[in-house]
Hints:
four-stranded mixed sheet; about 15% strand
Amino acid sequence: MTDATPDHAPDAPLVRHARERGVTTLTLDSPHNRNALSRRLVAELHAALAAAAADDGTRAVLLTHTGTTFCAGADLTEATDPDAAAASGPLGLARLLRTVVELPKPVVAKVTGHVRAGGLGLLGACDLSAAGPGATFAFTEARLGLAPAVISMPLLPRMDPRAAARYYLTGERFDAAEAARTGLITLAADDPDAALEPVLAGLRKGSPQGLAASKALVTADVLRAFDRDTAALADTSARLFASEEAREGMTAFLQRREPSWAR
């Protein structure tokens, strides 16, 4: 991984935002590390979500991305940095996901690229989502000596249990149609922008109070999972990250080789 790409200055924002006709678009713009959840990106995303929540002119948030990846999950280059772990480690990730779930404005994801590991948790925390034909999905944690622990809180209440078991365990890659079938996303579409037009039009017509109260109804089970499981799952994730197997898995990933246990 590199620190910057020629078309992205090192000091440029990693989360860009713009508002048009009641929809605030937040664009993850860190293509050099596949929009990984680095300490800086997480901080900028928190700030952007807070600003959208406080903006009376915003009815909904549209979360999207630049580059070929929506979000690759944890930034493995920060895995051994204690300061980074506080912001983007297991508890930091749980806080970010809960912020999305609790936001009083609906959050809609538009995915045109790959989603991996913790990025699936961010996607799952969104209320609605559409993905295009170039989107792929994979829970890669088990192949790294880890588990999709924290991200299970927004995902398991929404996904088909048999599908979750298959993809959690195998790490197989699947497409947008399968993601929609399993409940990971709302819509699979050849043109995600067109597919989201009626969705965003409907949200623009909602009252702030009506949208917030309606969202609270459909996220209640997810928030109960956060209340019940955050501490235990964050502890599980931290323990796995600190293990010898995980160190080997992450090192092998960064070195682009198979880990020692692969057969």
